């Protein structure tokens, strides 16, 4: 659940840049465009997310608490905090045309006034985020503004009191599990100064203050330019028992990372009633034509003898390991080639849910593999589909924006011998070998250049965490 808190003071409607060759766009236009793109992405990627759009420092007011200077924007029969709809996105993208006439802009915190619109906005946002448990729902308040000192117009004890109550309101919201983020915009003549007020509001100190502005700029770009992709919820695909030795077995969860989108399964329908058809298999006696039960015995001809097997004996013959995942040994990382990775890998992370101590064993194995530059060779699968896999340890990578790569292991499915085709050696002289002309080489080069995805990075796909 996200509440977008957008500053609507007159300073937000000043040009965002003083360069003559660039478009005369305002900070307000930038934020409207940013939120519009983010809502479009949410409908495609995370359709269950709920959003609310709230303006502060406005002439008109529209909120359940009837607080001055705060306008909760909404359309139709939609709740103030609800899933984004096509009508919301369409109307909000055109809000600049009618904003001044319908909602209006004003300096909310002025000298001689006790009205604190930023305090009111935080109160309204907190009230909007009341529904839903903090344990199961992520709740965020995003503040967009280019004013680094909202209380600059007033002085003395009144200013001190307003700053204290506003920061306390923010701390109360954070204590309830609400995350408050600031996306600041620097004006052409001066850079946004976090130390004046907002560092205390969102709880930054020391080096965090200097690192915050660049990371906030990256977040704004990501909201506007991120890929529109269907995102799956973070959920475990399967829980596996991982046998390290005969005596040590731990529990791990597997997670699916980026996967290709495939068409859904075909459902056969009855041509008359349109009811889905159900497939059933029956055994028919070759001599009498009567229906038989599923046979309990199988047989194999060997030296003109009929050797009978029970179904249970057959499954035991096929069984390679009693566990889902069985460690076989270790190899240097340079033994693992790029062409061994035939299908998307699976991410592995430990779990102490049923086997206590799994995380401790996993961490010891993980750190040793990183230190020695080894990958683990393991058996994975069931009797019907046995497979060798490579477990490659991934080190945690963090940045100012948070965790980029989580620690764990990638399970890479190794190919069977039939999957690897070695190119045959062709013994031909240089004269017999066909050669492309310069024009063909040029055309092929141009084709490859055109199919290149510019400004694309795999990092644009969000981390599963």
List keywords for this structure.
465 residues, single chain, 10 helices, Ku70, Chain: A, Domain 2, alpha+beta, five-stranded mixed β-sheet
Main CATH class of the largest domain: Alpha Beta
- The helix fraction, in percent, is 25-40%
Tell me the count of domains.
Answer: 2
Query: In one word, what is the shape?
Result: elongated
Per CATH, the superfamily of the largest domain is von Willebrand factor, type A domain
Low-confidence stretches: none
What is the CATH T-level topology of the largest domain?
Rossmann fold
**How many DSSP-defined strands?**
18
Q: What string, H for helix and E for strand, traces the elements in order?
A: EHEEHHHEHEHHEEEEEEHEEHEEEEEH
The biggest beta sheet reads: 7 strands, mixed, barrel
How would you classify the helix and strand content by structural class?
alpha+beta
Largest sheet strand order = 6-7-13-18-15-14-12
CATH architecture of the largest domain: 3-Layer(aba) Sandwich
User: Cα distance, first to last residue?
Assistant: 17 Å
Radius of gyration, rounded? 31 Å
Q: Strand portion, in percent?
A: 15-25%
**How many distinct helices?**
10
> What is the average of the pLDDT values?
83
